[in-house]
Amino acid sequence: MMIFGPAVDVRPLFPRERQAMLDLLGALGPAEWAMPTVCPGWDVHDVVAHVLNDYMRRLSGSRDGYGGAIFADDETLPAYLARTNDEFVRASRQLSPQLMIELLDHLGPRLDAVWATRDLQAAADLNVSWASTDIASPTWLDIGRDYTEFWVHQQQVRDAVSVPGAVEPDLMAPVLDVFARGLPHALRMHGRPEGATAHLEVRGPAGGLWGVVRQDARWQITQPLGEPTARVSMDQDTFWRLATRGITVEQARQRSTTTGDADLTSSITALLAVVA
Fold first, then answer.
1. Which of 8, 74, 91, 224 has the fewest CB within 10 Å, making it most exposed?
2. Count of structural domains, the chain
3. Would you say residue 45 lies in a domain?
4. Is 205 within the bounds of a domain?
């Protein structure tokens, strides 16, 4: 069963997103590397170390078949990720900014090469748990999730040092599109009659309109046609920050307009597209 909608191929965008990040990092001074970010307890240096961890972890797992750190007894996925991410970041505080820049520049093309060989419709190496916990993710969604993570962490660095950028529609629109594939999971607790629909409008140059329909006793991505049972509209900045909890659900709701089924709009305005 494919509930996620048509594939989004972000692979051509990785080099551009990475170059924007490298250009940004290369221009930072020592004080900027120490600026706090929206990630609790992490400064710019820590966020960049986390991105480096992502590169190394995906190469180790998806290219080399290496399992990496194991779960502790009774450890949940969020707890496991919080622990292992923190361990890597703490160890990376010994690394110079210049070395981390060089490592990102060196490892990025190697990860691009891994994704270039993959069948986008095949089963993913890592399921995207915020999109579904009972249906295997396709490879395109797994790769898309990585792209959203790299882009979001770049934005967190940019926010910390007050240097906006990398928000051109062709770079940002796929992030919003991949995040919107979390709509069926966001609505999973709400049974509705077959054919019920909900729409999410994201306003802005990178935005769009996404629909979900109740079909075969579950929510699925669909073309946003007709008058929906529920509708939510918010701007593009609000949506990506909501999905990554850069703002609170209440803040996102204050910036949104909603019509129709209140339970459905409440769940849409609580969409989460990270593991937390």
1. 74
2. 2
3. yes
4. yes
Please state the φ and ψ torsions of residue 134, each to the nearest 5 degrees: -125, 0
Shared domain check, 260 and 158: no
Separation of alpha carbons 239 and 233, rounded Å: 9
Where in the sequence is the domain holding 93, given as residue range(s)? Answer: 11-166
Of the pLDDT bands very low, low, confident and very high (cuts 50, 70, 90), residue 171 is very high
Residues 222, 67: Cα–Cα separation, whole Å? 36
Task: Please indicate, yes or no, whether residues 109 and 191 belong to a single structural domain of this protein.
Answer: no
Q: What are the CA-CA distances from residue 240 to residues 10, 45, 124, 141, 166 (Å)?
A: 17, 22, 23, 17, 14
Name the percent of the chain in helix, strand, coil, to the closest 5: 50, 10, 40
- In angstroms, the CA 165 to CA 78 distance is 30
Q: How far apart are CA 110 and CA 113, in angstroms?
A: 5
Residues β-bridged to residue 221: 212
> In the numeric block, which tokens belong to residue 2?
């494919």
Residue 187 and residue 146 share a domain: no
User: What does the alpha-carbon distance between residue 19 and residue 80 come to, in Å, rounded to a whole number?
Assistant: 30
**Which among 215, 190, 192, 211 has a CA at the least distance from the CA of 202?**
211
User: The CATH number of the domain where 130 resides is what?
Assistant: 1.20.120.450
Helix or strand holding residue 100 (H, E):
helix 97-116
Mind listing the pLDDT tens digit for each residue in 29-88? Answer: 999 999 999 999 999 999 999 999 999 999 999 999 998 888 988 899 889 988 999 999
Helix ranges restricted to H, 12-96: 14-26, 30-33, 44-58, 77-92
The region, left, alpha or beta by phi > 0 then psi within -120 to 50, assigned to residue 114 is alpha
- 17 C-beta neighbours (distance < 10 Å), count: 20
